[in-house]
Design goal:
CATH class: Mainly Beta
Number of domains: 1
Helix content: 25-40%
Distance between the termini: 58 Å
Organism: Frondihabitans sucicola
Radius of gyration: 17 Å
CATH topology: UDP N-Acetylglucosamine Acyltransferase, domain 1
Structural class: alpha/beta
Largest sheet: 6 strands, mixed
Number of helices: 4
CATH architecture: 3 Solenoid
Number of strands: 15
Low-confidence stretches: none
Catalytic activity: L-serine + acetyl-CoA = O-acetyl-L-serine + CoA
Order of helices and strands: HHHHEEEEEEEEEEEEEEE
EC number: 2.3.1.30
Strand content: 15-25%
Pathway: Amino-acid biosynthesis; L-cysteine biosynthesis; L-cysteine from L-serine: step 1/2
Keywords: Acyltransferase, Amino-acid biosynthesis, Cysteine biosynthesis, Repeat, Transferase
Shape: globular
């Protein structure tokens, strides 16, 4: 009988960590290697901290877990300059490049293989439908530096949001939007 790698939490964790490092390598042509990425990429550190705080936020393994999750997320924010609320939903392989000033709100949903540059806000605009105040970002979306995606809007998969754009309406899949307010190219 051939040897099989056991499936379980440690194997999934290692696979997730490798995915995150791979996303950084793919998203940053200046990356010189996995060790450098693991040691100095603040976007990666913020995503890893989010994964811990999100687990505490959702599972609530003990009384006060949500408070601890918020405290840890603020510590990560102080260290990385990136604020990701523990209640946000983030898919696989998110890469935050030069992430200082990135803010991802509590009800935001971010898909897989998303690239976010510095100064991006995925923020709220008051109560939205079903209690959602923050945007939903599809898979393979790129959001340029300084862009703001505000309110309960949807940015479709494969879309691009230009640097400095302010998105307050849905963005169609595959579209590129620029400007204030954001408009399709």
């Amino acid at each position: 009988m051939p040897f099989r790698v056991p499936e379980g939490p440690p194997v999934r964790l290692i696979a997730r960590l490798r995915d995150d490092v791979g996303a950084a390598r793919a998203g940053d042509p200046a990356a010189r290697g996995a060790l450098e990425i693991v040691l100095v990429y603040s976007g990666l550190h913020a995503v890893w901290a989010y994964r811990v705080t999100n687990r505490l936020w959702r599972a609530r393994p003990f009384p006060g877990a949500r408070l601890l999750a918020r405290v840890l997320s603020q510590v990560a924010r102080s260290l990385t300059g990136i604020e990701i609320h523990p209640g946000a939903t983030i898919g696989r392989r998110l890469f935050i490049d030069h992430g200082m000033g990135v803010v991802i709100g509590e009800t935001a949903v971010v898909g897989d293989d998303v690239l976010i540059y510095h100064g991006v806000t995925l923020g709220g605009r008051g109560p939205g439908p079903g209690g959602r105040r923050h945007p939903s970002i599809g898979d393979r979306v790129e959001i340029g530096a300084g862009a703001a995606v505000l309110g309960s809007v949807t940015v479709g998969s494969d879309a691009r949001v230009g640097a400095g754009a302010v998105v307050t309406r849905d963005v169609a899949p595959g579209a590129t939007v620029v400007g204030v307010p954001a408009r399709p190219l």
